[in-house]
Amino acid sequence: MNEKVTILDRKEIEIIGATRVTASTVKEAVVEIEGGMLTISGNNLEVIKLDLDNHEVKFSGQINDVKFSERREKVGLLKRIFK
Question: Which neighbouring-strand residues pair with 78?
């Protein structure tokens, strides 16, 4: 699946290729995409479109920062202790 991120005037952001929205507040949203995670920071962030069947998510608000990161694997307590 291809991913596409479109930002319009720092007031809207559309993500194509989203698989899940893991968190969403007025200050930050975290969207899981096939290649990892996308974190959006700003003010007055609001989900205006959520269509995960078609892998589309759209937010409005003041967008200040967009960060891509690798998906973190959940590691159990015993694995962390006995590295």
Answer: none
In order of 15, 16, 63, 65, 81, the CA distances from 6 in angstroms are: 7, 9, 12, 13, 42
Number of compact structural domains in the chain: 1
Provide the domain limits for residue 33. 4-81
Half-sphere CA count of 27, side-chain side, radius 13 A: 0
Among candidate residues 50, 49, 46, the one with its CA nearest the CA of residue 61: 46
User: In sequence order, what DSSP letters do the residues of 57-78 get, joined into one string?
Assistant: EEEEEEEEEEEEEPPPPP--HH
Stretch 50-73: mean pLDDT: 91
Give this prediction's pTM: 0.81
